């Protein structure tokens, strides 16, 4: 009787689960304890894995931090959000992006991370650059891609899409985000947030709709 060789079960799903657990641990610990205050030992304990496992997925703490920032952004603003729907109204697409962006930047974790980066920029320019490229720059690149598609379709008239990208996100932050960063803001109602986002999108469209 010929024996049947039993194929080993694939290990990748388990590896992916561990990687996800490590990222989730980083999402919880970095905003609470800061970059310097978060050790790889703490990440491993929070994720329920060994420190060796953490290092096998992420070379060092800087790499893990970058991946955490990118994963956090992708949760709220996946790349699919920036695929231009040329058959739909552009205002609706801009509002969807605006709501997702504002929800992300005003979350407790995002506010904590922003304060942390502001406090230690002079100490670690490398860390600041990693944060910028994994978070804000990625979002700007994606939104610029969206704008260029809308420009090519005749939905927008923008001479400098990169500059317009920065204008859009800065307008969305506005006074509300600044007050939250300073900690001098009363709870913001959904009505106020909606009015702010709609006014911002309408201003942007008045500036860049085809003449």
From TrEMBL:
Keywords: DNA-binding. Residues 39-58 bind DNA. Pfam families: TetR_C_7, TetR_N. Residues 16-76 form the HTH tetR-type domain. InterPro entries: Homeodomain-like_sf, HTH-type_TetR-like_transc_reg, HTH_TetR, Tet_transcr_reg_TetR-rel_C_sf, TetR_C_Proteobacteria. PANTHER family: HTH-TYPE TRANSCRIPTIONAL DUAL REGULATOR CECR, HTH-TYPE TRANSCRIPTIONAL REGULATOR RUTR. This is TetR/AcrR family transcriptional regulator. It comes from Tahibacter amnicola. The lineage of its organism: Bacteria, Pseudomonadati, Pseudomonadota, Gammaproteobacteria, Lysobacterales.
């Amino acid at each position: 009787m010929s024996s049947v060789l039993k194929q080993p079960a694939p290990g990748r799903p388990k590896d992916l689960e561990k990687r996800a657990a490590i990222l989730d641990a980083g999402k919880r610990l970095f905003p609470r304890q800061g970059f310097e205050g978060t050790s790889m030992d703490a990440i491993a304990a929070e994720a329920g894995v060994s420190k060796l496992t953490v290092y096998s997925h992420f070379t060092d703490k800087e790499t893990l931090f970058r991946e955490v920032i990118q994963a956090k952004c992708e949760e709220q603003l996946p790349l699919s959000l920036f695929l231009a729907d040329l058959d739909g109204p552009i205002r609706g697409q801009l509002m969807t992006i605006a709501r997702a962006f504002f929800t992300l930047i005003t979350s407790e974790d995002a506010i904590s991370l922003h304060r942390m980066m502001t406090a230690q920029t002079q100490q670690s320019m490398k860390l600041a650059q990693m944060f910028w490229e994994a978070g804000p720059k990625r979002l700007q690149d994606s939104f610029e891609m969206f704008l260029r598609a809308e420009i090519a379709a005749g939905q927008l008239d923008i001479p400098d899409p990169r500059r317009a990208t920065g204008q859009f996100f800065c307008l969305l932050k506005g006074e509300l985000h600044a007050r939250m960063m300073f900690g001098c803001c009363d709870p913001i109602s959904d009505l106020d947030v909606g009015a702010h986002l709609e006014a911002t999108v309408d201003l942007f469209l008045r500036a860049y709709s085809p003449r």
